[in-house]
Specification:
Order of helices and strands: EHEEHEHEHEE
Oligomer: single chain
Number of strands: 7
Helix content: 10-25%
CATH architecture: Alpha-Beta Horseshoe
Largest sheet: 7 strands, parallel
CATH topology: Leucine-rich repeat, LRR (right-handed beta-alpha superhelix)
Distance between the termini: 39 Å
Length: 175
Amino acid sequence: MPEVVEAIVNVDYQSPEKLLESLPSVKRLSLCFSALMLHHRIGFDHLLHLELCASASGWWDLLTWMLETSPKLQLLKLCSCKEHPWSTEGFTTDVKPIKGHWRRPSSVPECLMFHLHTFKWKHYNLRDKEKEIVAYILKNARQLKTVYISEERSKKLKELVSLPRASSSCQVIMN
């Protein structure tokens, strides 16, 4: 499928690689599957917009992989499956907490240095490990213009405003 431009991928089986390998030209991608199912790395050289489900197991490892393999990524949205069009009963609206340590990219990904301009996180859960992800993106995304963070308990969100940023024109919008 070399001409696929937009794809919504909700994988329930053990080997998503074949499906993902068939999407080399995708520009807009919504992913919902466990990072534990991914056994090798596939590059997304044309990907511009990514929605990543943060309610799947190991989503934080999937995030690292996508940042490392999507050099032109401009928009990153972390959300829960309930927001996706394929949503069915039983999916949670909560972000799964990070178990163990979040493995940051080994070096600052190209997308953060040159392309990412919008970062959205719906249902941000205010945990320290998740804050580490926001801090990493703010600190390294040099072209970042807008960060949208949404969570019902906005008191703790205010501490995100004071995090260091690579982009002096970046606005953090919370609701």
